[in-house]
Design goal:
The complex is a heterodimer. The mean pLDDT of chain A is 93. Chain A is mainly beta. By secondary structure, chain B is mainly beta. Chain B is built from no helices and twelve strands. In chain B, the strands form three sheets. In chain B, strands 2, 5, 6, 10, 11 and 12 form a six-stranded mixed beta sheet that branches. Chain B is globular and about 45 Å long. The relative contact order of chain B is 0.34. The chains are: A mainly beta, B mainly beta. The interface between A and B is medium-sized, with 26 and 28 residues.
């Protein structure tokens, strides 16, 4: 179990630029989740995948955000035309399919800073 | 929509003592799951303990235990024999029992400091 891996750990960019983050889940997990965490807050759900299918998207996921999981393995989260308010920690998690008590395993996160 | 409330932004405890972190939640569902996650500084979030709503028995994991009061919608975490490594942000989280409703709803967290 190598854990959930996220890349990069930290991204600094200018407002208006596009950024893309990658998440590699635990290999046998077919569910993958993205959350956003701002300073002093708990993580907020953005979206989740069951294999390659994106099954739920939060209203927080505006048109500038897109997530993919093309082969049901790794996932990417892209933010277009970044804004100051996008500065946050973006967390990825994965879990196996099963009962709801299956815990989600989190990665270290990607911290996005918008200049 | 479900909400999770953690009313203690910060707590501190002497090493080797016991501390209880509070969590309340609001839901109209009868089937759900509750979790406590720990997030050490600059490190990944890890599961501490979980509780199924249909189980009356409180969950325990070594020094960690919960007091689950379903009627009161309360889910507190007790840490016994506190250790320096317990210092972290602690988040309470809720997950619906509906299949396909996979998201976790988190509280705002409690920062726990351990005093040597």
């Amino acid at each position: 179990d190598t854990g959930v891996s996220q890349d990069p750990r930290h991204k600094i960019t200018k407002r208006g630029q596009n950024v893309t983050f990658r998440c590699d889940p635990i290999s046998e997990h077919n569910r993958l989740y993205w959350y956003r965490q701002t300073l002093g807050q708990g993580p907020e759900f953005l979206t989740y995948f069951q294999n390659e299918a994106q099954l739920e998207k939060s209203r927080l996921l505006s048109d500038r955000f897109s997530a993919e999981r093309p082969k049901g393995s790794f996932s990417t989260l892209e933010i277009q035309r970044t804004e100051q308010g996008d500065s946050a920690m973006y967390l990825c998690a994965s879990s196996p399919t099963g009962r709801g008590n299956q815990p989600q395993h989190f990665g270290d996160g990607t911290r996005l800073s918008i200049l | 929509a479900q909400t999770v409330t953690q009313s203690q932004p910060e707590m501190s405890v002497q090493e080797a003592e016991t501390v209880t972190l509070s969590c309340t939640y609001d839901t109209s569902e009868s089937d759900y799951y509750l979790f406590w996650y720990k997030q050490p500084p600059s490190r990944q979030m890890i599961l501490v303990i979980r509780q199924e709503a249909y189980k009356q028995q409180n969950a325990t994991e070594n020094r960690f235990s919960v007091n689950f009061q379903k009627a009161a919608k309360s889910f507190s975490l007790k840490i016994s024999d506190s250790q320096l490594g317990d210092a972290a942000m602690y988040f309470c989280a809720y997950r619906s029992g509906d299949f396909g409703n996979e998201k976790l709803t988190f509280g705002t967290g409690t920062r726990l400091t351990i005093i040597p």
